[in-house]
Each structure stands twice: as structure tokens, then as C-alpha cells.
Amino acid sequence: MDVIRRNTDYAVRLMVHLAKHYGNGPASTRASATKEHVPYQLACKLMQKLNNAKLVTSCMGPKGGFVLATAPSKISLLDIVEVIQGPVNLNRCLMSEDICPQQTNCAVRGKLAILQKNINSGIAAITLDELSQKGPKNKLVRNTKRRKQ
After folding, report:
1. Distance of alpha carbon 15 from alpha carbon 45, whole angstroms
2. Does domain 6-88+127-132 fall into CATH 1.10.10.10?
3. How many helices (H) does the chain have, and how many strands (E)?
4. pLDDT digit string, tens, across residues 111-148
5. What is the phi/psi pair of residue 125, to 5°?
6. What gap in Å lies between CA 109 and CA 114, rounded to an integer?
7. Alpha helices, DSSP H, located in the chain
């Protein structure tokens, strides 16, 4: 199960590119797609969704493209996720109380609801400004030392 799907990851990368470009005029979809390694046709579709949701603004003309509709510090990762893939749901039972006939007696639903709230809060706390800051690249660290027997 992917909490953040591939298309959403691509959209986040495109938005990070615009955040890095913020205040310097529009960035073309082709340039953003190339820089962020997103297939161009998909980038066009994603930018249209983001434009329809008013997270970006389209600028027409030969030097046109897209700009962020608001400051990167005002756009959360959750904003982007919900535009591209809809709400993040751990389980169908959390989407509506009518889905599960056992919801009143379910020991799992309450714990999942707490986890769901924490995930949403965590994703909402991350801003586009934070994602666009330069810093050390995240690397998976693998313990290569052998355990003593």
C-alpha cells in the first residue's frame, strides 16, 4: 500500500520545482518535467489538476508556464496529495460510518482512526517551502556490520 502514489510523487516534485522558482516568473511545464524527471504528458495533466485546484496559476505566452498561486510556506504536502489522489485513507471503514456494520463494536477502528489523524497531521505539517530547501540528500542507511553470534 502506497500512502503517496506515484502520480502524487510526480506532482510534489513539480511543485517543489515551482517553489524553487518562486518569485522568478513562470516555469514551463516542459522545463519542470525535464528537471524533475516526470514524463511530459503526465506533467501536463498534473499541472492542469493543480491549476484547477488553484494551487498554481497558468501564465500564457511564449515565456509562459506556471507559478505557485500562493507562497510555498502556505501550501502543505497534504494540499497536493488531496488534489492529485484524494484523501489518504488507511482503511475503508474510516471513510464513512455506514461502511462497516461492526463499527460500533470494532476494536481496530478506533486505533486506525488515531493513526489516520496522526498521518494526516504529519503530512499537513510539511510545507512546500520545507520541501524546496536545499540540504543533505536523504539516504537509506544500512547497517553493514555483522552481528556477533
Report:
1. 13
2. yes
3. 6, 2
4. 888 999 999 999 999 999 999 987 555 443 444 444 44
5. -75, -15
6. 9
7. 6-20, 29-36, 40-52, 77-85, 107-125, 128-132
Q: Alpha carbon 48 to chain centroid distance?
A: 15
Retrieve residue 9's grid coordinates: 510523487
Domain boundaries, the chain: 6-88+127-132
Cα–Cα distance, 14 to 35 (Å, whole number): 9
Phi, psi (degrees; rounded to nearest 5) at 99:
-70, -40
Beta carbons of 17 and 27 less than 8 angstroms apart: yes
* Alpha carbons 58 and 51: distance in angstroms, whole number: 7
Supply 108's cell numbers: 481496530
**Residue 56, beta-bridge partner list:** 68
Residues sharing a CB contact under 8 Å with residue 73, sequence separation 6 or more, in sequence order: 127, 128, 129
Instruction: State pTM to two decimals.
Output: 0.82
66 - beta bridge partners?
27, 58
List the beta bridge partners of residue 68: 56
Residues contacting residue 147 through CB under 8 Å, at least 6 positions apart = none
